[in-house]
Amino acid sequence: MRFDEFVTTPPRPAPTDLGGRKYVQSFLLIRLVIGFLGWSLPIVLVAGSFVLGEDDPWKDSISAYYHFGMGDVFVGAFCATALFLFSYMAFERNFDNVVSIVAGIAALGVAFFPTPGGPTLTPVQELLGERVAGAIHFTSAAVFVLALAAICWRFGRGEGVRPDRTPRQHARGRALHYTCAGSIVVAVAYIAVAAAVALPGLLDEKAVFFGETLAVLAFGVSWFVKGTELRLLLGPVDAGA
Hints:
Elements: H1 18-51, H2 71-88, H3 95-112, H4 123-128, H5 130-159, H6 167-196, H7 202-205, H8 207-227, H9 230-234
Helix pairs in contact: 1-2, 1-8, 2-3, 3-5, 5-6, 5-8, 6-8
């Protein structure tokens, strides 16, 4: 396993290679789905809570939705993300695959070990204790978010070595993915600062929600953009391309 090896989109298939085309489409579709799950989750959770008529559809954190009407959606989204992260590069032996697997395991930790503060204790909290379950949740969340930043950064590094892109496209790709990685780091720093220093109004009250939302949106955008190459395969492919 080498750190400088990058997972890139498989070579574009020839027009007559239907099997190869379907393989690449599947690879890119996984990226699209992971990206969609990332940027849509905060929107779906807030909108769903509003539709369900909850008194406070805008919770203090994304994890807090576990304890309310959108809890199944929260758990399902993180489990689906974990499965996609596990299968995305399952047979690749490189650093990207390790980070992807770590992120997947952490996503399951976020889903199965709830954050403290619910109206009643869950079976997991009763078994382990609310404090222990919360510690596992927060550790998993931290690992998950940092792994997301690493994946986005690796996407940016990988953009610079693609032979099928122009220098301008390389620069654009690197800028986008590095911005997403940086946004995740900023989100983590913001949550840490808000925990240590009193900020005004909602910037303090909803700091965790704002930070988590920025992180998953940045992650989702990075992955979604990596998957939008799918549209190139849906159109005509020249033999010499």
